[in-house]
Amino acid sequence: MLAQGILSDLRIVEASNFVAAPLGGLTLAQMGADVIRIDPLGGGLDFSRWPMSNDDVSLFWCGLNKSKRSVALNLGDPEGRELAMSLISAPGEGAGLFVTNFPPRGWLDYDKLKKRRADLIQVTLQGDHKGGSAVDYTVNARVGIPYVTGPVSDDAPVNHVLPAWDVATGHLVATGLLAAERHRSRTGQGQHVKLALEDVALSVMGHLGFIAEAQLGCARGRYGNDLFGAFGRDFACADGRRVIAIGLTLKQWNSLVEATGLAQTIEAIGVQLGLDLAKEGDRFPARRELCAAIGGWIAARSFADVAASFDRAGVCWAPYQTIDELVHTDPACSVENPLFDTVDQSGVGRVLSPRSALRFDAFDARAAGTAPALGEHTEAVLGEVLGIDGAAYGRLHDRGIVHGPW
User: Fold this and answer.
1) Is the pLDDT confidence value at 50 over 60?
2) Which domains does the chain have, with CATH numbers?
C-alpha cells in the first residue's frame, strides 16, 4: 500500500481560475499528482471570490486548490512569462502536462510551448467550441434548464445554484489529460486537448434525452418537485419535517408500498386509471393520485416514525435539511465518514476537508490537504524543477519577477 497516491509519478502545471479547470487539477492532486499552480502576483480573478472567511480568505479558492503547490510569478514581465513557460515544458517522464482555462495565446500558446517540449500535453478549457466566453450560468440558460426548473405555475426562468456543468467539465479535464497521457506513454506523442464548457452541457443534454425529446415534438415542461417519468417528490410529516421518497425502480417502488401499507389503495388507483403501477412510466401519470395517498400517510406521522418505517422497508428516501444541518448534525458530513479529515487551513481555521471520493485497493487514500498560501512554493518549485539556486532566486525576487508566500 502506497500512501502517496496512484498518480504520484505525474507533475502537472495549472494556470486557471474559477471552477472547472481548478477542479480538474484538484481531482488529479487528490490522487497524488504534483499539481503546481502558476499564480499572478497578488492572486488571480478568483482569489477573493465569495464565500469568504472572517479573515477575508476565499473559502471558494481554498476549496478548489487543496493539495496543490503555488508559484507566484510576475506574468506581466517577459522574464516572469519565460519562467512560466519553462515550468510547463520542463523535462521529466511524468511532466510536460499542462491545464488551463485561459485563452491559448502568448505564453499559453500550445505551438510555442511544443517547440520547447515536443511531447507536451496541454488541456485547454474554453467557453464554447469557437473559443468564446461562457460560464456555467450562461450555458445553463442557453440549454434550457432554467425553463424546466421551478414551480409548475411559474413562467420565469429559475437559475440553479449548483454549477453542474462546471463540475462535470472539471472531471472531464482530468479524464482528458489522463487519456492523452496514456496515449503519450504508448506512442511518445503529445497533443493539444480542447474542451468547451458549452459542449459538455450540450452532450449531457443529448445523453439524457432532452434534445431528442424536443426533436420529437414533446419538449420537456415544468413538473415542480415531481420526479419526471417515475414517482418521487417532497412530502411534509406531521411535525413539519420534510422528506423525499423515490419509487424509480420496481424494488424502490415495492419498498415504498410496503412501508406505507397502502398496497390495496395503490392497486385501486391503478385499476381506476387503467395503469400498471409496476411500470416506472405508468407511475408518472398517476403521480397526483399516488402523492395524495402516500402524502396522506406521511402527513399523519412524525418524522421519526416515517424514518423508522422507511428504513425498515429499505425505501429510497432522504430528509430535507439545510447545509447547516448537514454540517452540524449529519454523520455523513463528519470524520465518521472516511471521506473527511479535519485540517487547519491558514486564514480560515479548523475545517472539514474531503479526500478524493475514489477508493483504490492498491493505494492508501491520500489524506485531505489544505490550499497553499499564494506563492508558498515559489522558491522550492523553481529550485526543484528549473534548478534556480537561492542566490538566483533572490535576484528574481528583488526585481519583482517572483514572490514568496503572502
Assistant:
1) yes
2) 11-206+356-403 (3.40.50.10540), 242-319 (no CATH)
Q: In this predicted structure, what is the pLDDT of residue 217?
A: 96
Cα separations (Å) of 379 from 94, 283, 375, 393, 396? 21, 63, 8, 7, 10
Find out whether 380 and 393 touch, Cβ atoms under 8 Å: no
Q: What is the Cα–Cα distance from 404 to 406, expressed in whole angstroms?
A: 7
How confident is the model at residue 256, as a pLDDT? 98
Question: In which band, very low, low, confident or very high, does the pLDDT at 1 lie, cut at 50, 70 and 90?
Answer: very low
**Do residues 54 and 60 make contact, with C-beta atoms less than 8 angstroms apart?**
no
Angstrom distance (rounded) from CA 337 to CA 318: 18
Beta bridge partners of 40: 73
Which helix (H) or strand (E) segment holds residue 107: the answer is none
> What does the alpha-carbon distance between residue 76 and residue 45 come to, in Å, rounded to a whole number?
15
Is residue 2 pLDDT above 80, yes or no? Answer: no
Amino acid residing at 80: G
Give CA–CA dist 304/296, Å, rounded.
16
Strands 402-403 and 69-73: antiparallel
Q: Is the link from the previous residue into 51 a cis peptide, with omega within 30 of 0?
A: yes
245-262: pLDDT as tens digits: 999 999 999 999 999 999
d(CA 286, CA 265): 13
Q: In what order do the strands lie in the sheet with 316-319?
A: 231-236, 242-247, 316-319
Amino acid identity for residue 329 in this structure: T
* DSSP state, residue 330: -
166 has catalytic annotation: yes
Alpha-carbon gap, residue 92 to 351, rounded angstroms: 35
Contact (CB, 8 A) for 108 and 99: no
Percent of the chain with pLDDT over 70: 99
Q: What is the CA radius of gyration of the chain?
A: 26
How many alpha carbons lie under 13 Å from residue 349 in its C-beta half-sphere? Answer: 6
Overall average pLDDT of the 160-177 stretch: 97
Q: Which of 166, 324, 330, 389 is catalytic?
A: 166
